[in-house]
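**Backbone description:**
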Amino acid sequence: MLLEIRHVTQYRYAAPVRESVMEVWMQPQKSASQRLVSFDLELDPPAQLFSFADTFGNPVYHFDVPQPHERLTITANAAVETQPPPRLPEELDMGEWDRLRSAYLRGDNFDYLHPHGFARETAALRQYALDRDIEALRQSDPLTALRALSALISSSFGYESGVTRADSPIDDVLRTGKGVSQDFAHVMITLCRSWGIPARYVSGYLFTDRRKGDRSESDATHAWVEVFLPSLRWVGFDPSNNCEATERHVACAIGRDYSDVPPSRGVYKGDADHQLAVGVSVRKARAAISEPEFLRTTRQSGRPGASRGAAMAHQPRLHQMQQQQSE
C-alpha cells in the first residue's frame, strides 16, 4: 500500500516570542514492512534542521528559530510503501511463558519491562484488572492472551477525543471510561509488562477504514503497542481498534511511552500565551492534496497557555510547547 501523509503543526502566539527550540519525531521508519519513499520537513519561519537518532534509534529533527515570530508552522510530508506483516499463528505453545522468563530476554528488553512515565501501574489499574479478571487470560498461551487483552481494552473504553490530554495520567481514562489511542496503548503496555511481556509504545499514523471497524480519527496521529514474543519477535497490537497492526499502520517512532516520542516537543522564550492547531492527512497515493482542502481538517487543541512551563530564573521566560495527543 502506497500512502501519502501530511502532518501540519502550527503554534500561534498572542504576542511575538523571541526564540523557539523544537524537536520532532515525524519521519516514518524504514523497516522490512515499511519503505520510506520520501520525506521532507518545511518550517515557517525558516530554520536550519539537524537530525540525529535518539536512544531508541528513532530519527529526530532539531531546529532553533532565533528571531522574533508570532507563528511557527511545521509541515511534514511523507510517502510510504507498506507491506502486510507476516500472518501470525492461531496460538503458541504454553512454553512461550517460560521463554519470556529468560534472563537474557529480560536484560535485553529492560526498558520495555519496567514502569516509565505514563505506563505505570496504579491502584485504579489494579482494580480494573481485578474487576475484569484479567489474570485469568494468562491461562492461555501468550499470543492468545494478548489478543484477548487487546479486545478487552477496546470494549472497556469508549473512543472519544477531548476527554483526555497529551499529558493525562493513566488514571484519567480509567476514571472516565473514555479516551484515545494514546490512553489505550498506555493501559495495554502497563498490563503486558505486569505479565512479564516486553511492550513498547509506537507513535505514527493510521490509514483509517471505517469498514474495518476503525474508531480512530482520520485527521490525527495514532498510537499502538508492540510486544516481544520470543517465537515471533515484535508483534503489533492496536487496542483502539481491536486489531493487530496491519499495512495501514505507519510507524514513526518507538519508546517506553508517549513521553519518549511525542510528534513534537520544544520550548519558547517570551511571555505570550500560545495555541496549538494540528492537521493530519493519511491517504492512498493520488493527486496532491490542496491547501484549502487540507486546512479543513485542522483542529484547535487546548487553551491558550495551557501547557505553560515554569519560569526560568532569568528573563525572558522559557515556556514548554503544548504537545500533540495521539488519537
Observations:
- The helical segments are 95-100, 103-108, 123-131, 142-156, 170-176, 181-194, 291-295.
- Residues 95-260 form a domain with the C8orf32 fold fold (CATH 3.10.620.30).
